[in-house]
């Protein structure tokens, strides 16, 4: 069983940066991969970044490629999401997710607004 706690969200102006953190209660090495998802009001939850445990392979959708970077620190059981050049359309609740097991965190709100 793995539990995630996300933090680092907030309000930022367009063009700004935020770094989200996702701390796992158990060892992340038991997971095949950890990802960050986001959900805006009225929209489906979508993947924004994914990193595998074995070889740190990363995946990003085109909407965030070049702006977002996912990384992991196994010693701290933490996965990070560095978000740069934020846009108003990045506004959403951001969730941490682990597989197998389909573990979800409670989410952290990111608002990009001038």
Keywords:
single chain; 114 residues; mainly beta; 7-stranded mixed β-sheet; 4-stranded antiparallel β-sheet; 50% strand
Give a written overview of the molecule.
With about 110 residues, this protein is mainly β. Helices cover about 0% and strands about 50% of the residues. It has no helices and 11 strands. It has strands spanning about 5, 10, 20-25, 35-40, 45-50, 60, 70-75, 80-85, 90-100, 105, 110. The strands form 2 sheets. Strands 2, 4, 5, 6, 9, 10 and 11 form a 7-stranded mixed β-sheet that branches. A 4-stranded antiparallel β-sheet has the order 1-3-8-7, with no helix packed on it. A hairpin with a 6-residue loop joins strand 4 and strand 5 (about 45-50). The model has no long low-confidence stretch (mean pLDDT about 95).
How is this fold's topology laid out?
Blueprint: E1 4-7, E2 10-12, E3 18-24, E4 33-39, E5 46-52, E6 58-59, E7 68-73, E8 78-83, E9 92-99, E10 103-104, E11 108-112
Parallel strand pairs: 2-11
Antiparallel strand pairs: 1-3, 3-8, 4-5, 4-9, 5-6, 7-8, 9-10, 9-11
């Amino acid at each position: 069983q793995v539990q995630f706690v996300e933090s680092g969200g907030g309000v930022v102006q367009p063009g700004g940066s935020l770094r989200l953190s996702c701390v796992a209660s158990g060892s992340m090495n038991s997971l095949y991969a950890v990802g960050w998802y986001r959900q805006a009001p009225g929209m489906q939850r979508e993947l924004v970044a994914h990193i595998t445990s074995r070889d740190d392979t990363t995946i990003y959708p085109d909407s965030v490629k070049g702006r977002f970077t996912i990384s992991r620190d196994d010693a701290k059981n933490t996965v990070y999401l560095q978000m740069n050049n934020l846009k108003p359309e990045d506004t959403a609740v951001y969730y941490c997710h682990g597989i197998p097991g389909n573990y979800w965190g409670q989410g952290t709100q990111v608002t990009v607004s001038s």
